[in-house]
Design a protein that fits this description.
The chain has 2 domains: about 325 residues, Zn peptidases (Aminopeptidase), CATH 3.40.630.10; about 110 residues, Alpha-Beta Plaits (2-Layer Sandwich). Helix content is about 35%, strand content about 25%. The protein is built from 12 helices and 16 strands. It holds the Pfam family M20_dimer. Its cofactor is Mn(2+). This is Aminobenzoyl-glutamate utilization protein A. Keywords: Manganese, Metal-binding.
Length: about 425
Amino acid sequence: MKNYFEDEGNYELVKMWRRDFHRHPQSSWSEFYSTGKIAMELEALGYKIYQGEDVIDPERRLFLPDREILDYNYNLAIENGIDERYIIKSKGGLTGVVGVIEGDIPGPTIAYRFDIDALEINEDLSEDRKAVREEYYSKFEGYSHACGHDAHTAIGLLLGKYFSENRKKIKGKIKLIFQPDEEKLSGAEAMVAKGILEDVDFLIGGHIGANLFELGSIAFDVENILAVTRGEVEYYGVATHSTGRPEQGKNAILGACAAITHLNAIARHGKGSTRINVGKILGGTGYNTIPDYCKFYLETRAETKEINRYLQNRAEDIIYGAAKMYDLKFNYKIVTNVEGGENDEYLIEKGIEAVKEVKGIKNIKSKLKMNASEDFVIMANDVKKRGGKSIYVVHGTNVDGGHHSTTFDFDEKVLINATWFYASMYDSLINN
């Protein structure tokens, strides 16, 4: 294993893959380029490939782009070199891939999960940036890999190559899960609904950076993977002329503004972290018309599902109260609900054992507060309910900019560190 991951050729290969994904970013349910590239590479490595409705429940997808956008991105992938054979099953927003390889010796089913979606953010094209100098910046305007999922995808492919070339070591079954739509938090649910984890004994996932910004470090005891709820609030009023008949109007925007102001005044909880945000508001038709409709997008996050429930209860009271104040009708629809999570102690212990074999990792962070949400938890909980175990690892790396920024980049040596760790973790589990 040591010789494999110290081989300069494998480092150059995983770096090439990462930069290829970075050049071709596509967001939730439109990740056709990455899907096609992953499927092609895994098939060449001898994996059995599952795609489309074999791995995605269409009814569980949220925030699905319009057909026009999906078709545009599908054709864009083909124009940029993807063989349509590898994405035809994904047409219409059924992106993602599961690759399966089995050994000749009985053993557990171990799954690794890698998210593949990019963000709807333009990348900074300043000439002093490394991505620009070395020409791996985003080719797709309006999109960039500003969170590191290009790294995760490349790590998954190198891990797949390692297992393919060391097939005699495999005991049982390995599943490589390349998940779409992590950012909008419905990709995991759509895959879980198809039963792809029903036979999984151990589930392993992770993220580069994520509050651990030192190359050569790693965290197993990851805390504050926050529960998150996202909802859409609509207020319905009565439209009238704002000067001629203002007394007959019922202003939906005023009701929404009252709700938003008081939502941000909810008392924080003494037993854990909380977050609340309104990220988008829509309403009104002009200067002189009292608006009869307003909609806003609300998100709560909390350290536990109980604290998140507290936020939601208070939010519902405020939304209702604002409607009463302004004599409005309202609708509050929850569109995403993801629980918080924690790692299994057994896998934390195995991780500490496994990392000793990884040359590039010298520092184990005892505890790390991630302070973010991750729909990996949906997969983890699905595995745990059948007696399986899961772990979410943070791989330390130096970062330029920050996650979700226009200048995000990282030290690519983390690609080898993370892949080497995942391979070592496999050995630690099967040789118990």
